[in-house]
């Protein structure tokens, strides 16, 4: 049972990390696109909508990061910090890339 829980928690942490990366990258890309389309000082409805979209994706990343911290704390309390570090070492972080 503990092994199943361990792998489920690791898979969930991996999914959360990927979600954070995608949300942050998408938000950055939307901001860059909004500057390209409307200029640095440009305004208008399109710019406002793009900024709102980027903000929502950043909020999603913040929420996912909070979930990740909670699951990490559960993992450490259940299996220990040493085991968590061992499992993390098996799966190094992927480099960020633009969409």
Amount of helix: over 70%
Structural class: mainly alpha
Distance between the termini: 38 Å
Q: Total strand count, please?
A: 0
Radius of gyration using CA atoms only:
18 Å
- Structure annotation, total helices: 3
Query: Beta-strand percentage?
Result: under 5%
**Which stretches are poorly predicted, pLDDT < 50 over at least 5 residues?**
none
Order of helices and strands: HHH
Number of domains: 1
How would you characterize the overall build of this protein?
- With 99 residues, this protein is mainly α.
- The chain has one domain.
- Helix 1 runs antiparallel to helix 2 and helix 2 packs across helix 3.
- The longest helix is centred in the first third of the chain and has 37 residues.
Features:
elongated, mainly alpha, 3 helices, 99 residues
Helices, strands, pairings?
Blueprint: H1 2-38, H2 45-79, H3 81-90
Summary of the model, kept short:
With 99 residues, this protein is mainly alpha-helical. Helices cover 83% and strands 0% of the residues. The longest helix has 37 residues, at 2-38.
